[in-house]
Write a structure and sequence with these properties.
single chain, alpha/beta, TIM Barrel, binds iron/sulfur cluster
Length: 208
Amino acid sequence: MNLPVVEIFRSMQGEGANTGKPVVFVRLGRCNLACPWCDTDFSVTRPMPPEAIADAVDKCSDGVRAVVVTGGEPTVHPGLPELLRELKDRGYWLALETNGVNAPDAESSKLLDYVAVSPKAMYAELYDDEKMATKADEVRIVADGDIEDFCANMRSRISARHYFISPCERDGVMDVATAVALLGRLNSSQRANPWLLSLQTHKLAGFR
Ligand code: SF4
């Protein structure tokens, strides 16, 4: 089954608990949300079968043994488990980045080594306990306005090892102050496993 591929490239993870980890990104097209500050252009895609995607990963990996499947929203593609199986069979550590509205399917979940869920406050009503991701390795929420209640709500519904707040970027300006103020409010009642700041270091350092 083909998947719509935006790009495949080797870089470092730029945010979250794996910041600095060398990885190959596989960016898939399409998303089930339309965040106004979305910085991902996934309008141009190339349909590729899982074997061809894995071949492209092999080709650019240069010894890197970790793949991050991102988007867009990877869980909207029925071919996702087939892609993950192909990559796993080639020995890659596998991470998924998702907005969490839909939990990864059972087969994909078994193949994944790391799941980063990034819930979107402006779509809070779409997070349904029956369908949403309720387990993750990290939860990363963009500080888009007054979202303290949303963060607390997501924390109570998604079990994770790490909880991060990321600054929102609009027109090239990263609003770190709003993110830090939110962290302060959230952590005033969160002494164990506090919320942490996740900067989009790839933007600060100018790599992708
Ligand atoms: S969920 Fe992510 S990829 Fe989808 S529109 Fe929002 S920011 Fe963009």
